[in-house]
Structures are given as structure tokens and as C-alpha cells.
Design a protein that fits this description.
Helices cover 31% and strands 16% of the residues. The strands form 2 sheets. The protein has a 12-stranded mixed β-sheet. α2 links the parallel β3 and β4. The protein binds S-adenosylmethionine (SAM) and iron/sulfur cluster. The site of S-adenosylmethionine has 21 residues, from β5, β7 and α12.
């Protein structure tokens, strides 16, 4: 799409007779999804995401749960319909389940989902269902306990498997996110795909992105994973069902309860259908994962200027760049850890 001027964008996409008609960016993409990181802290140290030693952000710099809910309210008035809570590890923040309850009651918000490493999921499962959690993504890169510990720094695989079991019991729709690294866990892809045979979990392969520590590791392309799975299972058929709101392409395998998904940010750029903005735990809006650019909303919010905060949200939408530049490492300007951005 050729970009629109801000004046034409406002006229065409933002407001009509004082009401929001839709929320599109300067390239005409509908933006209806916001990922919110609620903490930079984590109970794992995945090698592509976080250094072993890290200084946590001071508590007062983080948005409070009430402030996050307020931003969701403003975003909903602009056309955001789906919220994903992420981190760091969102479940290590006290009140994560309560926040999900607060957001799911906001008029206009259709879905609240969670991305978690699964360690605390069993403890919170019942509460998350009661609070109205719509769906969960569990990050799990290996079923071999030693490889799991090598990647995450901890022998906590049994807790994750308990978490998955608890999601089944609570009947919360669950996707499993797998990031493969060359020479580390590429051998795990078939075992992980098998989870979709025996459970109604979608298993999704996400290409490693050159953000933070991911820059030092080697991505396994989804073309290669697709080939490996096709060689093993025979033809993978495109799944006609809708599975969510994101860029994943889904395929079915005969006899499987769940589907196999591929999120190919590097080898299958999907920027022309990007539908999201990000909010960091410190209240920065991020129009694109790849660039450092941030729009700071916390000060406006804390000074009670909700109109200004809403304007900043609209600005973050408008300013979304046309595409990421992960294929040209020298052009990536984001240098924060993924745990600070939220993935
Ligand atoms: N702690 C939660 C979890 O692990 O799901 C939520 C935060 S984590 C940053 C969100 C997602 O980002 C995880 O699925 C993780 O695998 C993914 N991630 C982190 N660094 C990545 C990278 N460099 N490339 C691709 N995905 C990455
Ligand atoms: Fe923690 Fe998630 Fe990053 Fe792993 S990927 S270190 S679980 S924030």
C-alpha cells in the first residue's frame, strides 16, 4: 500500500462523526490486536531471550495493573479487540489472573489470551478460567528433559507438562509454541509435533528472530521443518479452519487432534497482514518488533490526561512501518532483550 498522510488517514480511518469507525495504519492494515508485556521478570532463562544475570526494572517504572487496564479501555475505544498478556513470564507477576479478569470485562474486548512458559500454569489454571481467559500459548522447545534444561536453564519440564494437563482439564484452548535452534533442539520437532496427535493442542513452529540474544543463534527455517514433517507424516494438508488472529499457517495431519502451525517471520515475511501493536511493561508503545522506536504513554496516563494517552495510541498505530528488516541484520535497530518486549 502507498502510505497515507496523517491528515488523510485521520479523515479516512480514525474518526467519523466522533466515533471510531476502524483502526487502520498508514498502509491500510487493520490493527485490532495488542500484545502487552506486564513484567520483565522470568522464572526461566531461555538462551535466545534472556541473559543469565539481569537487572530487573524498578517496580515504580512498571505500569500498575489498573494502568494497564486503563490503556486497554482506551485501545478498545480505538478498535483494539484482542489482547495478549505476555512478559517476561506474566504469571510471575502477582495479580496476572486478576488483570485478565479486568480486561475481559472491558466493552469491545472480544478476547484476552496469555503467552506463558507454563511453569505456574497448573497453579493458576482454575482462576484463569474463572477470570475469562480465552486461550493460552505455552512455549515449549523440547520434550527431552536435558535439552529443555539446556535451553531454559532449569529442570522444570514436569511443571510445564502439568500446566498443559491443567489447561485440558479447564478446557482452555491451548497452542504450543516451539522455537528451534540449529544444533540445539532441531531433533525435537517430531516429538513436539506428536503432542498434537494425542491432545487438542495446535503445535506451532516459530522461526527464531534476530532480536536480543537471538542474534547469536542460528534459526532453523520453517521450510526445513515442513519438509521434515512431510517426510515423516506424508502430505500436510492446509487446514481450512481459522485458528486465531495471527500470521500462522496451519496444516492437518491425519489422525491428529490438533493442527501444526508455522510462523515464518524470517523465511515467509507476513508484514502486509500485520495486525498488532505492542505495549511494554514500562508503558512504551512499540509499532514494530524490529525497530527501537517507542511512543511513551505512561506519563500522559499518570498525569490523568487520557485524551493525550488515546492520541499516542492512535499515533503508534498510524506510524507502524511497512515491514520488518530481519533479513538485513545491520538495519535492525531494536537492541532490547525479547523478555523486555514480550515476543
Ligand atoms: N515467558 C513467556 C513465554 O515464554 O511464552 C512469554 C514471553 S516470551 C518473550 C514470548 C515468546 O517469545 C516465547 O514463545 C518465546 O519462545 C519467544 N521468543 C523469545 N525470544 C525469541 C526470539 N529471539 N525469536 C523468536 N521467538 C522468541
Ligand atoms: Fe522467560 Fe519466556 Fe524469555 Fe523464556 S522466552 S526466558 S520463559 S520470557
Amino acid at each position: 500500500y502507498p502510505p497515507l498522510s496523517e491528515k488523510r488517514w485521520k479523515k479516512r480511518y480514525l474518526y467519523k462523526k466522533g466515533k471510531t469507525r476502524s483502526m487502520k495504519d498508514q498502509f491500510g492494515r487493520t490493527i485490532d490486536y495488542m500484545r502487552i508485556s506486564i513484567t520483565d521478570r522470568c522464572n526461566l532463562r531461555c538462551r535466545y531471550c534472556m541473559p543469565e544475570r539481569i537487572e530487573w526494572l524498578p517496580k515504580e517504572e512498571l505500569l500498575s495493573l489498573e494502568e494497564i487496564a486503563e490503556i486497554c479501555r482506551l485501545a478498545s475505544s480505538l478498535g483494539i479487540r484482542k489482547i495478549k498478556i505476555t512478559g517476561g513470564e506474566p504469571l510471575v507477576r502477582n495479580g496476572c489472573d486478576r488483570l485478565i479478569g479486568m480486561i475481559s470485562q472491558i466493552p469491545g474486548i472480544d478476547q484476552v489470551s496469555l503467552t506463558t512458559n507454563g511453569i505456574l500454569l497448573a497453579d493458576y489454571a482454575e482462576s484463569l478460567r474463572r477470570q475469562g481467559l480465552h486461550a493460552v500459548n505455552v512455549s515449549l522447545d523440547a520434550l527431552d528433559p536435558d535439552i529443555y534444561a539446556q535451553i531454559t536453564g532449569y529442570h522444570k519440564l514436569p511443571q510445564v507438562l502439568d500446566g498443559l494437563h491443567a489447561m485440558e482439564q479447564q478446557q482452555i484452548p491451548t497452542k504450543i509454541n516451539v522455537v528451534l535452534q540449529r544444533g540445539v533442539n532441531e531433533t525435537e520437532c517430531l516429538a513436539l509435533a506428536e503432542l498434537a496427535r494425542h491432545h487438542a493442542f495446535d503445535v506451532r513452529f516459530i522461526e527464531l528472530m534476530p532480536i536480543g540474544h537471538g542474534k547469536q543463534l542460528t534459526c532453523v527455517s520453517n521450510t526445513e521443518v515442513f519438509q521434515k514433517l512431510s517426510d515423516h507424516y506424508g502430505t500436510l494438508l492446509p487446514d481450512p479452519d481459522t485458528h486465531g488472529n495471527g500470521p500462522a499457517r496451519y496444516y492437518t495431519v491425519e489422525g491428529f487432534q490438533g493442527s501444526i502451525g508455522f510462523i515464518s517471520a524470517i523465511h515467509g515475511k507476513f508484514c502486509n497482514s500485520c495486525n498488532r501493536i505492542r505495549l511494554t511493561a514500562t508503558g512504551d508503545l512499540k509499532p514494530c518488533l524490529c525497530y527501537q522506536e517507542r511512543i511513551l504513554v505512561k506519563d500522559a496516563l499518570r498525569s490523568g490526561d487520557t485524551k493525550e494517552a488515546q492520541k499516542l495510541l492512535a499515533q503508534a498505530i498510524f506510524q507502524k512501518p511497512a515491514a520488518h528488516c530481519f533479513e538485513t541484520l545491520s538495519s535492525i535497530t531494536e537492541d532490547a532483550e525479547m523478555s523486555r518486549i514480550g515476543g
